[in-house]
Amino acid sequence: MSIDFLPDKPIYQQLMERISGDIIKGIVKPGDKLPSVRDYAVEAGVNANTMQRVYRELELVGITETKRGQGTFVTKDEIKLKELRKDMKETLIASFIHHAEGLGFSKQEMIESLQIRKGGE
């Protein structure tokens, strides 16, 4: 399962977002072991060094923890996972607003459209 990467964003960031998204969606659960760096690199179709960076960055922000000789695991820290969810939500909202404003939509138009969608459209 090779991944189609966007050309305008570093691959390691896209992989971090993918893993974070899988955690938020519950595909990967707190305490789950992630595939080895090599296995995930092969699965994603990237260099093992890129995958190693992804795992290192995820650990630096507290999303994962590496247990020597056992592998890399998703944190069980509920506060960290709630922060991850909140951060991803805010990033998506900021991106949406930026793109919509770039197309000339007012904040009021965006709010009205979101309220209509919430109502069951």
UniProtKB/TrEMBL annotation:
Task: State the Gene Ontology terms under molecular function.
Answer: DNA binding; DNA-binding transcription factor activity
Is DNA-binding included in the keywords of this UniProt record? yes
Membrane-crossing residues?
A: none
Annotated signal sequence is none
* Listed PROSITE patterns: HTH_GNTR
Arranged from A to Z, the UniProt key words for this protein are: DNA-binding, Transcription, Transcription regulation
Q: Which residues form the HTH gntR-type domain?
A: 9-77
Q: Name one Pfam family in it.
A: GntR
Q: What is this protein called?
A: GntR family transcriptional regulator
- Organism of origin is Paenisporosarcina antarctica
